[in-house]
Amino acid sequence: MMKFFGRGKDSAVDVSPQSFGHSASASASGPSVNGPARPVRLLYCDEKGKFRMDPEAVAALQLVKEPIGVVSVCGRARQGKSFILNQLLGRSSGFQVAPTHRPCTKGLWLWSAPLKRTALDGTEYNLLLLDSEGIDAYDQTGTYSTQIFSLAVLLSSMFIYNQMGGIDEAALDRLSLVTQMTKHIRVKAGGRTTSASELAQFSPIFVWLLRDFYLDLVEDNRKITPRDYLELALRPVQGSGKDIASKNEIRDSIRALFPDRECFTLVRPLNNEKDLQRLDQILLDKLRPEFRAGLDALTKFVFERTRPKQVGGTVMTGPVLIGITQSYLDALNNGAVPTISSSWQSVEEAECRRAYDSAAEIYMSSFNRTKPPEEVALREAHEEAIQRAMAEYNASAVGVGAMRKKYEELLQKFFRKAFEDFKRNAFMEADMRCSNAIESMGKRLRAACHASDASIDNVVKVLDALLSEYDASCHGPGKYIFSMI
Fold first, then answer.
1. 115 φ/ψ sector (left φ>0, alpha ψ -120 to 50, else beta)
2. By mean pLDDT, which of 5-9, 36-40, 356-360, 367-371 is the weakest?
3. Distances from the Cα of 146 to the Cαs of 114, 194, 377, 416, 442, in angstroms?
């Protein structure tokens, strides 16, 4: 098991359920496929402008066969995204992608070892953490950032937007990519533009995290919650004109795209500016109590509310995440708009097909071919092989709808045909074996009858011996064949 490190330097941290005041548990899975756990690039844009998935991330995800939930943290660079991700990992450092001046760091980065989680409802799953490095929600590069932002939203169970300060017009402008998502994503195939409310059914829980927050949350002389503060900020602006319409479009898009939303505030963790530059080296108990309380509340919310990502009847696993991401990237690289329903359907079919192939292979290898060619014995071997094969299929196939049913029906047809083919061949071999035995018995019986010392007693003895020999060597259909001769 990967050992957790403390939030403070050289100190341990309690990540037990009691430390967060709820019944969910957190632990890290084993190390990644290539060494200890660390951030690996999930997807990026190459020098030719094509989106790619990193082979190392793909290899790590292929090992995660159980359901997964995904928490993404997005926001401007150098505003503490890595700090939040490390707190969720129970570490003081580690989720540091690279210095921002280095090339090829832009994209989505994945912590290679998922956290083993048990949700409040008892569901066990793996929690994956994503960091959108170099992707600002307000980015003049336009399309590229919108596409990465959209992918992070679509892949996530919970999407945390990390920002310094309060929610004002400038902050809302930085989330303007939300209004562009509908131009880059379709729910269903076709030429019609998808609305934000249509995309909402696939959207994650949205958390607006406000860092170094200093405002008093008061409205009409009464104290309000951060969630109230968010809702007030998203209210339509009164007035008319193009500028007002643009402001309200952003607010409308955020409300429509993220119906399940929350807001958390964190005060400045330290007052000393120099200490802030080395926050990952400061012991947690040296940070301001108000900051620690807010951090605990955020961590508790993330662990309690995150669930395995699911679209329709398909629960995301590591291989499914690979498939759906690659499907989106293929569409983008071909100049098309990714379509959610089509992409998920193609992934469902690919995974169900793989499950079908694996189950068919297990059936063939599990069928006990040493059984005698008798209907009852062969039927028992057939049923045992089916049970093993179906266990594999049910463990590997995804979805609960038509695609899964389709391949299950194909699998049942395969079982029936394979069984009938084997039974027919087994009976033909038995028939041939018994026919040869009968022919040999006839020759030996005739020889006994024509022997110089032939007698009734000798012939009967030979016949009894032949019958015993036949009964020992020919079974099932052979007995039936012999009785008819």
1. beta
2. 5-9
3. 26, 15, 62, 51, 86
The full DSSP string for 226-254 is HHHHHHHHTSPPPS-SHHHHHHHHHHHHH
Query: Could you report the per-residue pLDDT of 292-348, keeping only the tens digit for each?
Result: 999 999 999 999 999 999 887 788 999 999 999 999 999 888 888 788 878 888 888
Could you tell me the end-to-end alpha-carbon distance of the chain, in angstroms, rounded to an integer?
Answer: 69
d(CA 223, CA 227): 12
Pairing of strands 107-111, 51-53: unpaired
For residues 133 and 107, the answer to whether their CB atoms sit within 8 Å is: yes
Q: Which amino acid is at 157?
A: S
Residue 64: left (phi > 0), alpha (psi -120 to 50), or beta?
beta
CA distance 245 to 205: 26
Q: Helix 177-184 to helix 143-155 angle, to the nearest 10 degrees?
A: 80
Q: 123 near 53, Cβ under 8 Å?
A: no
Q: What is the dihedral of CA 77, 78, 82, 84, to 10 degrees?
A: -100
- Return the amino acid letter for 162: N
Task: Determine the Cα–Cα distance for residues 317 and 344; give it in Å rounded to an integer.
Answer: 12
3-state secondary structure of 205: strand
Using alpha carbons only, what angle is made at residue 313 by residues 257 and 180, rounded to the nearest 5 degrees? 20
